Amino acid sequence: MVSPQVAERIRKPHWSLARTWLLQPGVPDSCEAFDDAASGSADAVVLDIEDGLPDFQKAAGRHAVAEWLTAGGRAWVRINTAGTPIWSADLDALAGVPGLVGVMLAKTESVDDIAETTTRLPAGTPVVALIESALGIESALAIARGPGCGRIAFGVGDFRRDTGMSDDPAVLAYPRARMVIASRAAGLPAPIDGPTLRSASNHLARDTAVAKSAGMTGRLCLDAAHAETINTLLSPSPLEIDEARRTLARLDAPSGPYDGSVGPTRARAEAVLDLAAKLGVD
Protein backbone atom coordinates (compact mmCIF):
# COMPACT_ATOMS: atom_id res chain seq x y z
CA MET A 1 0.00 0.00 0.00
CA VAL A 2 1.23 3.51 -0.81
CA SER A 3 2.50 5.09 2.41
CA PRO A 4 1.25 8.51 3.55
CA GLN A 5 4.80 9.83 3.08
CA VAL A 6 4.90 8.69 -0.55
CA ALA A 7 1.39 9.99 -1.17
CA GLU A 8 2.42 13.39 0.14
CA ARG A 9 5.38 13.50 -2.26
CA ILE A 10 3.20 12.59 -5.23
CA ARG A 11 1.02 15.73 -4.82
CA LYS A 12 -1.55 15.01 -7.52
CA PRO A 13 -3.67 17.90 -8.78
CA HIS A 14 -7.37 17.94 -7.94
CA TRP A 15 -9.44 15.74 -10.24
CA SER A 16 -11.02 18.82 -11.81
CA LEU A 17 -7.55 19.64 -13.19
CA ALA A 18 -6.35 16.08 -13.81
CA ARG A 19 -4.64 15.70 -17.16
CA THR A 20 -3.96 11.95 -17.23
CA TRP A 21 -6.62 9.39 -16.23
CA LEU A 22 -4.90 6.01 -16.11
CA LEU A 23 -7.24 3.07 -16.67
CA GLN A 24 -5.73 0.32 -14.54
CA PRO A 25 -7.46 -3.06 -15.04
CA GLY A 26 -9.02 -4.27 -11.79
CA VAL A 27 -7.52 -7.73 -12.16
CA PRO A 28 -7.84 -9.96 -9.06
CA ASP A 29 -4.67 -10.31 -6.94
CA SER A 30 -3.18 -7.13 -8.43
CA CYS A 31 -2.59 -5.02 -5.33
CA GLU A 32 1.02 -4.36 -6.37
CA ALA A 33 -0.14 -3.09 -9.75
CA PHE A 34 -2.69 -0.83 -8.03
CA ASP A 35 0.05 0.50 -5.73
CA ASP A 36 2.36 1.15 -8.69
CA ALA A 37 -0.38 3.00 -10.56
CA ALA A 38 -1.19 5.15 -7.51
CA SER A 39 2.47 6.11 -7.04
CA GLY A 40 3.08 6.79 -10.72
CA SER A 41 2.87 9.93 -12.85
CA ALA A 42 -0.84 9.78 -13.74
CA ASP A 43 -2.90 12.54 -12.14
CA ALA A 44 -5.87 10.21 -11.60
CA VAL A 45 -5.96 6.42 -11.37
CA VAL A 46 -9.15 4.66 -12.49
CA LEU A 47 -9.40 1.02 -11.46
CA ASP A 48 -11.31 -0.52 -14.34
CA ILE A 49 -13.93 -3.18 -13.60
CA GLU A 50 -15.76 -2.60 -16.88
CA ASP A 51 -13.90 -3.11 -20.19
CA GLY A 52 -10.67 -3.70 -18.26
CA LEU A 53 -11.88 -7.18 -17.30
CA PRO A 54 -13.44 -10.12 -19.14
CA ASP A 55 -16.90 -11.05 -17.85
CA PHE A 56 -15.71 -14.13 -15.97
CA GLN A 57 -13.33 -11.98 -13.87
CA LYS A 58 -15.67 -9.11 -13.06
CA ALA A 59 -16.93 -10.41 -9.72
CA ALA A 60 -13.44 -11.26 -8.43
CA GLY A 61 -12.04 -8.01 -9.80
CA ARG A 62 -14.76 -5.97 -8.12
CA HIS A 63 -13.96 -7.66 -4.83
CA ALA A 64 -10.21 -7.05 -5.22
CA VAL A 65 -10.75 -3.36 -5.98
CA ALA A 66 -13.08 -2.90 -3.02
CA GLU A 67 -10.58 -4.61 -0.72
CA TRP A 68 -7.71 -2.40 -1.90
CA LEU A 69 -9.78 0.75 -1.44
CA THR A 70 -10.82 -0.39 2.03
CA ALA A 71 -7.22 -1.15 3.03
CA GLY A 72 -6.01 2.41 2.41
CA GLY A 73 -5.82 2.83 -1.35
CA ARG A 74 -7.45 5.79 -3.07
CA ALA A 75 -8.65 5.79 -6.67
CA TRP A 76 -11.52 6.25 -9.06
CA VAL A 77 -13.33 3.17 -10.37
CA ARG A 78 -14.81 2.68 -13.83
CA ILE A 79 -18.09 0.85 -13.39
CA ASN A 80 -20.45 -0.86 -15.81
CA THR A 81 -23.40 0.57 -17.74
CA ALA A 82 -26.21 2.09 -15.67
CA GLY A 83 -29.29 -0.02 -15.11
CA THR A 84 -27.60 -3.39 -15.65
CA PRO A 85 -27.29 -6.07 -12.95
CA ILE A 86 -23.50 -5.81 -13.06
CA TRP A 87 -23.71 -2.02 -12.52
CA SER A 88 -25.85 -2.64 -9.47
CA ALA A 89 -23.35 -5.17 -8.14
CA ASP A 90 -20.51 -2.68 -8.73
CA LEU A 91 -22.30 -0.02 -6.68
CA ASP A 92 -23.19 -2.45 -3.91
CA ALA A 93 -19.51 -3.32 -3.56
CA LEU A 94 -18.23 0.28 -3.70
CA ALA A 95 -20.82 2.33 -1.85
CA GLY A 96 -19.19 1.99 1.57
CA VAL A 97 -15.47 1.82 0.77
CA PRO A 98 -13.48 4.74 2.20
CA GLY A 99 -10.90 5.05 -0.58
CA LEU A 100 -13.35 5.64 -3.43
CA VAL A 101 -12.56 9.06 -4.93
CA GLY A 102 -15.29 8.89 -7.56
CA VAL A 103 -16.71 6.71 -10.31
CA MET A 104 -16.37 6.79 -14.06
CA LEU A 105 -19.68 5.63 -15.50
CA ALA A 106 -19.33 3.65 -18.72
CA LYS A 107 -21.56 4.26 -21.75
CA THR A 108 -23.51 7.17 -20.28
CA GLU A 109 -26.40 8.16 -22.53
CA SER A 110 -28.76 10.22 -20.36
CA VAL A 111 -28.96 12.40 -17.28
CA ASP A 112 -30.96 9.58 -15.67
CA ASP A 113 -27.87 7.36 -15.85
CA ILE A 114 -26.03 9.89 -13.66
CA ALA A 115 -28.97 10.37 -11.31
CA GLU A 116 -29.48 6.65 -10.74
CA THR A 117 -25.77 6.22 -10.05
CA THR A 118 -25.38 9.11 -7.61
CA THR A 119 -28.35 7.94 -5.52
CA ARG A 120 -26.46 4.69 -4.87
CA LEU A 121 -23.26 6.42 -3.73
CA PRO A 122 -22.34 8.49 -0.67
CA ALA A 123 -23.42 12.12 -1.01
CA GLY A 124 -20.90 14.23 -2.88
CA THR A 125 -19.19 11.37 -4.73
CA PRO A 126 -18.27 12.80 -8.14
CA VAL A 127 -19.13 10.98 -11.35
CA VAL A 128 -17.24 11.27 -14.63
CA ALA A 129 -19.67 10.43 -17.43
CA LEU A 130 -17.96 8.40 -20.13
CA ILE A 131 -19.77 9.21 -23.38
CA GLU A 132 -19.33 6.46 -25.95
CA SER A 133 -22.23 6.58 -28.42
CA ALA A 134 -24.11 8.82 -30.83
CA LEU A 135 -26.96 9.14 -28.33
CA GLY A 136 -24.52 10.08 -25.61
CA ILE A 137 -22.96 12.83 -27.74
CA GLU A 138 -26.38 14.24 -28.64
CA SER A 139 -27.29 14.21 -24.92
CA ALA A 140 -23.96 15.69 -23.79
CA LEU A 141 -25.33 19.00 -22.49
CA ALA A 142 -28.09 17.35 -20.44
CA ILE A 143 -25.59 14.84 -19.04
CA ALA A 144 -23.09 17.58 -18.15
CA ARG A 145 -25.81 19.60 -16.40
CA GLY A 146 -26.97 16.63 -14.35
CA PRO A 147 -26.46 16.90 -10.57
CA GLY A 148 -23.43 14.86 -9.56
CA CYS A 149 -21.69 14.97 -12.95
CA GLY A 150 -18.15 16.23 -12.31
CA ARG A 151 -16.69 15.94 -15.82
CA ILE A 152 -17.45 14.21 -19.09
CA ALA A 153 -15.05 11.98 -21.02
CA PHE A 154 -14.90 10.70 -24.60
CA GLY A 155 -14.90 6.94 -25.09
CA VAL A 156 -13.52 7.08 -28.61
CA GLY A 157 -13.31 3.35 -29.35
CA ASP A 158 -16.93 2.53 -28.53
CA PHE A 159 -18.10 5.75 -30.16
CA ARG A 160 -16.39 4.78 -33.39
CA ARG A 161 -17.86 1.29 -33.16
CA ASP A 162 -21.34 2.79 -32.67
CA THR A 163 -21.09 5.31 -35.50
CA GLY A 164 -18.67 3.76 -37.99
CA MET A 165 -16.49 6.89 -37.93
CA SER A 166 -12.75 6.69 -38.52
CA ASP A 167 -10.12 7.94 -36.09
CA ASP A 168 -9.25 10.89 -38.34
CA PRO A 169 -9.13 13.99 -36.07
CA ALA A 170 -11.12 15.97 -38.66
CA VAL A 171 -13.88 13.35 -38.59
CA LEU A 172 -14.02 13.35 -34.78
CA ALA A 173 -13.91 17.15 -34.48
CA TYR A 174 -17.71 17.35 -34.14
CA PRO A 175 -18.11 15.04 -31.10
CA ARG A 176 -15.11 16.63 -29.39
CA ALA A 177 -16.54 20.10 -29.96
CA ARG A 178 -19.94 19.01 -28.64
CA MET A 179 -18.31 17.80 -25.43
CA VAL A 180 -16.20 20.94 -24.96
CA ILE A 181 -19.18 23.24 -25.52
CA ALA A 182 -21.44 21.15 -23.27
CA SER A 183 -18.86 21.21 -20.47
CA ARG A 184 -18.45 24.95 -20.70
CA ALA A 185 -22.20 25.59 -20.87
CA ALA A 186 -22.74 23.39 -17.80
CA GLY A 187 -19.96 25.06 -15.83
CA LEU A 188 -17.83 21.90 -15.68
CA PRO A 189 -14.07 21.56 -16.16
CA ALA A 190 -13.10 20.87 -19.76
CA PRO A 191 -13.66 17.28 -20.88
CA ILE A 192 -11.31 14.30 -20.97
CA ASP A 193 -10.35 12.91 -24.38
CA GLY A 194 -9.94 9.26 -25.26
CA PRO A 195 -6.65 7.33 -25.04
CA THR A 196 -3.84 6.49 -27.41
CA LEU A 197 -3.54 2.73 -27.83
CA ARG A 198 -0.30 1.05 -26.80
CA SER A 199 0.11 -0.11 -30.39
CA ALA A 200 -0.08 3.53 -31.55
CA SER A 201 2.35 5.05 -29.05
CA ASN A 202 4.14 6.82 -31.90
CA HIS A 203 1.01 8.98 -32.24
CA LEU A 204 0.85 9.97 -28.56
CA ALA A 205 2.14 13.52 -29.00
CA ARG A 206 -0.03 14.12 -32.06
CA ASP A 207 -3.16 12.78 -30.34
CA THR A 208 -2.50 14.90 -27.27
CA ALA A 209 -2.03 18.00 -29.42
CA VAL A 210 -5.39 17.28 -31.06
CA ALA A 211 -7.07 17.04 -27.67
CA LYS A 212 -5.49 20.30 -26.49
CA SER A 213 -6.40 22.17 -29.67
CA ALA A 214 -10.00 20.98 -29.29
CA GLY A 215 -10.19 22.53 -25.83
CA MET A 216 -9.93 19.30 -23.84
CA THR A 217 -7.70 19.33 -20.76
CA GLY A 218 -7.40 15.65 -19.89
CA ARG A 219 -6.92 12.31 -21.59
CA LEU A 220 -7.67 8.72 -20.73
CA CYS A 221 -4.51 6.64 -20.62
CA LEU A 222 -3.99 2.90 -21.15
CA ASP A 223 -0.24 2.82 -20.55
CA ALA A 224 1.41 4.33 -17.47
CA ALA A 225 4.42 5.14 -19.65
CA HIS A 226 2.27 7.66 -21.55
CA ALA A 227 1.44 9.72 -18.46
CA GLU A 228 4.45 12.01 -18.32
CA THR A 229 4.14 12.97 -21.98
CA ILE A 230 0.43 13.72 -21.64
CA ASN A 231 0.95 15.72 -18.45
CA THR A 232 3.68 17.78 -20.08
CA LEU A 233 1.78 18.48 -23.29
CA LEU A 234 -1.48 19.35 -21.53
CA SER A 235 0.30 21.77 -19.18
CA PRO A 236 1.26 25.31 -20.19
CA SER A 237 4.74 25.18 -21.69
CA PRO A 238 7.52 27.57 -20.62
CA LEU A 239 7.07 29.34 -23.97
CA GLU A 240 3.31 29.72 -23.42
CA ILE A 241 3.86 31.02 -19.88
CA ASP A 242 6.46 33.53 -21.05
CA GLU A 243 4.21 34.69 -23.88
CA ALA A 244 1.28 35.12 -21.48
CA ARG A 245 3.40 37.27 -19.18
CA ARG A 246 4.59 39.41 -22.08
CA THR A 247 1.03 39.78 -23.31
CA LEU A 248 -0.22 41.03 -19.96
CA ALA A 249 2.71 43.43 -19.66
CA ARG A 250 1.96 44.79 -23.12
CA LEU A 251 -1.75 45.24 -22.32
CA ASP A 252 -0.97 46.93 -19.01
CA ALA A 253 1.27 49.48 -20.73
CA PRO A 254 -0.20 49.92 -24.22
CA SER A 255 1.85 51.77 -26.79
CA GLY A 256 -1.05 52.31 -29.15
CA PRO A 257 -4.86 52.09 -29.43
CA TYR A 258 -6.69 48.94 -28.40
CA ASP A 259 -7.88 46.86 -31.34
CA GLY A 260 -11.08 45.55 -29.80
CA SER A 261 -9.74 42.11 -28.87
CA VAL A 262 -8.10 43.12 -25.61
CA GLY A 263 -10.64 41.36 -23.38
CA PRO A 264 -10.30 37.91 -24.96
CA THR A 265 -6.53 38.30 -25.31
CA ARG A 266 -6.15 39.20 -21.63
CA ALA A 267 -8.47 36.40 -20.55
CA ARG A 268 -6.48 33.79 -22.50
CA ALA A 269 -3.18 34.98 -21.06
CA GLU A 270 -4.58 35.03 -17.52
CA ALA A 271 -6.01 31.54 -18.00
CA VAL A 272 -2.58 30.19 -19.01
CA LEU A 273 -0.93 31.66 -15.91
CA ASP A 274 -3.75 30.53 -13.62
CA LEU A 275 -3.52 26.94 -14.88
CA ALA A 276 0.27 26.96 -14.60
CA ALA A 277 0.01 28.11 -10.98
CA LYS A 278 -2.57 25.46 -10.11
CA LEU A 279 -0.48 22.70 -11.70
CA GLY A 280 2.74 23.97 -10.17
CA VAL A 281 4.54 24.47 -13.49
CA ASP A 282 6.52 27.52 -14.57
TrEMBL record:
SUPFAM superfamilies registered for this protein in UniProt: Phosphoenolpyruvate/pyruvate domain
Taxonomic lineage of the native organism: Bacteria, Bacillati, Actinomycetota, Actinomycetes, Mycobacteriales
Molecular function GO labels: lyase activity
Name of the protein in question: CoA ester lyase
Residue ranges occupied by any HpcH/HpaI aldolase/citrate lyase domain in the UniProt entry: 35-223
Domain of life: Bacteria
Required co-factors: Mg(2+)
The species this protein was found in: Mycolicibacterium mageritense (Mycobacterium mageritense)
Keyword hit for Magnesium: yes
UniProt keyword terms in alphabetical order: Lyase, Magnesium, Metal-binding
Keyword Cell membrane attached: no
InterPro entries per record: Aldolase/citrate-lyase_domain, Citrate_lyase_beta/mcl1/mcl2, Pyrv/PenolPyrv_kinase-like_dom, Pyrv_kinase-like_dom_sf
Pfam families referenced in this protein's UniProt entry, alphabetically: HpcH_HpaI
Gene3D superfamilies attached to this UniProt entry: Phosphoenolpyruvate-binding domains (3.20.20.60)
